[in-house]
């Protein structure tokens, strides 16, 4: 169950409309260098799309709801408007960033009640993404991410996309016999938060999940590590420190549990999460490795929730998205979109009867 949160900001938001319009113009010029008639048509389309962006006043880009894979995934596409468009139709059909951009344009400018992302679905199937099966939302997000990065020809766009989503942490591994310590920086796209502690006890709130994720862990018995300095396996202390949080933070609630004989079952217990989150109030100083300027951006507003109903093997995804202009919540349920209340969104916390 992923939660998407956007950083609070001021001046950065006000320039989004102009920045988006400029990017669209750049894309138009790149796509139609050799055909003036097509250039005029595309520029007109770009102006229309840019005007829609201006009216929407989206803070963190546009969220696309993809439901053709028995799934609802939300993804930002702020970097898609400057991609290098493939020259030939067959290449375009297999280009994930281009198909995502076409879907976005159809969603924003189309007149029909619902958009059917069939072209994108078949594009993904060319890369062994199975259709007509239930995908884990976070796993499908990572699959889309890797395909998009691989097919973006401009390194600066890949870097920009990384900047929007990438979380940076520092891993610490310390030998408890000789105090030898290793440090390694790593990055991730989502914060995969467990809902159970090491003793299989239920974590009650999102704050509890975050604190447990960054809580040090003792590696003993069969979990001991080899220490180069001691020359043998010894008990280690493993911990993580937060270095950087991106503009768009994706939190993945791991609502599944492994039992004996590799059996997996879904965790549907109640776990509330807030509409705003300040990491400075959640993590301790020892769990952070960042300066004050970095920590100043660690305040987030919730703007999307992807919720699953059903069991571990079958079910249905819905996306709850908050309008950043109206400040109202909407439920995207395949071809149906309706306004909902914050109380409705709370049902996604977990409900034994609904199996959210």
TrEMBL record:
Q: Which domain of life is it from?
A: Eukaryota
Q: What Gene3D superfamilies does the database record attribute to this sequence?
A: Cysteine proteinases
Q: Which residues form the USP domain?
A: 56-356
List, alphabetically, the PROSITE patterns matched. Answer: USP_2, USP_3
Q: Name one Pfam family in it.
A: UCH
Which GO MF terms does the UniProt record name? cysteine-type deubiquitinase activity
The lineage, from the top, is: Eukaryota, Metazoa, Chordata, Craniata, Vertebrata
Q: Which GO terms describe its biological process?
A: protein deubiquitination
Q: What is this protein called?
A: USP domain-containing protein
Q: Known InterPro entries for this protein?
A: Papain-like_cys_pep_sf, Peptidase_C19, Peptidase_C19_UCH, USP, USP_CS
The keyword Cell membrane is annotated on this UniProt entry: no
């Amino acid at each position: 169950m992923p939660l998407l949160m956007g950083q609070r900001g001021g001046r950065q938001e006000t320039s989004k409309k102009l920045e988006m319009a400029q990017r669209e113009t750049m894309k138009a010029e790149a796509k139609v260098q050799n055909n003036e008639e097509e250039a005029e048509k595309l520029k007109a389309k770009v102006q229309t799309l840019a005007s829609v962006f201006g009216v929407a006043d989206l803070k963190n880009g546009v969220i696309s709801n993809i439901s053709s894979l028995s799934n609802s995934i939300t993804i930002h596409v702020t970097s898609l408007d400057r991609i290098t468009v493939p020259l030939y139709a067959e290449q375009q059909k297999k280009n994930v960033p281009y198909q995502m951009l076409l879907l976005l344009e159809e969603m924003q400018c189309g007149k029909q009640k619902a958009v059917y992302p069939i072209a994108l679905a078949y594009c993904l199937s060319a890369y062994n993404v199975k259709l007509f099966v239930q995908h884990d939302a976070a796993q499908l997000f990572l699959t889309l991410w890797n395909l998009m990065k691989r097919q973006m020809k401009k390194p600066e766009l890949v870097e920009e996309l990384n900047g929007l989503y990438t979380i940076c942490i520092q891993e610490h591994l310390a030998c408890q016999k000789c105090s030898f310590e290793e440090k390694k920086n790593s990055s991730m796209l989502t914060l995969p938060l467990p809902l159970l502690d090491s003793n299989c006890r239920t974590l009650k709130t999102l704050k509890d999940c975050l604190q447990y994720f960054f809580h040090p862990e003792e590696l003993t018995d069969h979990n001991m590590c080899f220490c180069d300095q001691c020359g043998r396996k010894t008990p280690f202390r493993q911990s993580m420190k937060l270095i950087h949080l991106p503009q768009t933070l994706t939190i993945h609630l791991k609502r599944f549990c492994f039992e004996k004989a590799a059996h997996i079952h879904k965790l549907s217990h109640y776990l509330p999460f807030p509409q705003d989150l300040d990491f400075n109030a959640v993590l301790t100083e020892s769990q952070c490795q960042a300066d004050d300027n970095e920590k100043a951006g660690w305040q987030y507003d919730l703007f999307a929730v992807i919720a699953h109903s059903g069991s571990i093997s079958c079910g249905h995804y819905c996306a709850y998205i908050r309008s950043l202009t109206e400040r109202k919540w909407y439920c995207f349920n395949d071809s149906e979109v309706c306004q909902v209340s914050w109380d409705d969104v709370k049902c996604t916390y977990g409900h034994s009867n609904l199996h959210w």
